[in-house]
Amino acid sequence: MKKITFVYDPEIKPEKLDELLERMDPKPDKKLSLDKLSVENLNREEWLACSLSDNQLRKLLDQTKDKELNVALLPHPEMEQARKGFGINTSFETAWQEIQEAEKIPETDLMQVDEHLTFNSLVVGTSLSILYSNGADNFWEGVKTRFSQLIKLFRRVKLKPYTITYKNGKEKSKIEIAAMGILAVAHCESNLIFRRVIEQSGLDDGRIHLLILAPKSLFSLIQFGLQNLFFPIKGGTLPKFVGYISTSEVCLSSSERIQFAVDGEEKEAKELKISLVEEKIKILPGARLQEKEPSEGPKSINVAALPTGRLKEELLHSYLPWVRHATAEEFKDLFTLLRTNSQTSSTYLVLMALSTMIATFGLFGDSAPVVIGAMILAPLMGPIISLAMGMLRQDSLLIKNSLITIFWGVIVGLFFSILISLITPLEVLNDQILARIRPNLLDLGIAIASGVAGAYAYSKEEISKTLAGVAISVALVPPLAVAGIGIGWMDQEVFGGAMLLLGTNLAGITMAAALTFLLLGFSPFRLAKRGLFISMGILIAIALPLGLSFSKMVKENSIIQDLSGKEIPHGLLREVKVVQMEPLKLSVTILSENALDENDFRAIKAEIEEKIGRPASIELTLGVQLGAPITKAKE
């Protein structure tokens, strides 16, 4: 049967000691003040239940490194770091009960920083505590704490240079990075942020665990903070800018003074040596940290993705940008592809001709599936995305080649759509054509979404490029074909409306794609601002007539809602259409139980004008109800 000696703070007041002893059930076998404790007289079977401050506990463990003692911890007002590091319950009675129920005390890793015994953690640089909450007494207090931590994420951040040398098996590895901060613990289960992202670890796995926070932008940092503060998931995937290393020993150095905190105590140094205490110490962890079986987690995660080389130097140059810098690999691969797509090729011209021909036939046939097929085949995605990148980075050659390629694509498209309209004996404004000669702000929204989709898909290898092709072609091929039809019919209204839609979509897609590339870090703002301002000016100029068209559409919809389904003295109004706004011309069907004459028609016109509050020319269709059937006559 185990024997427990209660070791207490020598400075505790007698009445407080009596109170603690009253709360211990069953009573300890012995009680001793720390200053009266003789390590030489202790045996291996004896358990020490210690209610001491962090500093007192640290001195005790330094004295007993080679004694193989069994140490259990009870809460103490000044035992903050050891309580957190070993998961000790804040309730004195609960912690005492856990000691009574424990069958044995496991060996536990202890970390030391420059031979300074560490109970909880080492925090290097900007504190990572802003990314997780340590809990609160109640729900609303927890919400308040989380929002306070979230606000801190929006401050200006400057990364620091660090050199990390660590054991990787029998060899040593060395990485030179730019990082916001580094967090080190002896075992993951003792720290909330480690528990959420590292599922497998042990109290006695013989490794130090490091999290290296190296964000490339404030946006990614805020995103990670939001997830950990408000939507934490245990075992969640680490973002690419958070590296993880587990090793038996590690050395941190920097060209600048390293600001760090060991168990909350702030210090500075040029170099830090982190290792495990050689002698295993038996310390009983809290119930939630006690393992059912040992486990071994990963050796490293995302180390290769940390900022090194040229990216490291760029990030160290100034404060952390709002949007990330794309990596050299991303630049190389994407620019190679965009420069190829900006060239006018025979394949591009053939596909442009075929897609426009299919779209034109589909428009004449009023067939949406055929038009969609033409959208998928169209090759316009490549040069437009290349133009967006050229404008963003002020690359004159990329802009020139892209514009030439787009120009020849438009010319080829117009040629074949004009040719088909000339040889086709049809001149009817069906729904497919009408939908593309009255552009408004909704079409601009479609263009912007298409541009974002195209740029994002091009920048991500894992996304199929055909998805972006559909998104962009949707907005460009049909209006190009309708513009050719307008020329073939010699109809200025059809041609003008279709060309306005084509220009709207081209400007909207280019602007949105350039802005997306900027947010993805493919250009600094100082280089991109000129191209963005020019494209924004063009977009605003185009948006003005679109706004007028949208306003007109809203007015038309308002008139239709005011009349459709309304009962007037002469019958029920149905199938209301606005044929023309200036002057106003309506097409209306009226259902009546009686035949109507010319005087009735004039009265109906007056009743409709009274409802809409303005004069109008009306094409009236009469439906006379004779019993159940309804017949219609055109007046």
UniProtKB/TrEMBL annotation:
Keywords of the record: Membrane, Transmembrane, Transmembrane helix
Keyword hit for Transmembrane helix: yes
InterPro entries listed in its UniProt record: ATP-NAD_kinase_N, DUF389, NAD/diacylglycerol_kinase_sf
Signal peptide residue numbers: none
Key word Transmembrane helix present: yes
SUPFAM superfamilies, A to Z: NAD kinase/diacylglycerol kinase-like
Transmembrane stretches, start-end: 347-364, 370-392, 404-426, 441-459, 466-489, 495-520, 532-550
NCBIfam families reported for this sequence: TIGR00341 family protein
Protein name, UniProt field: TIGR00341 family protein
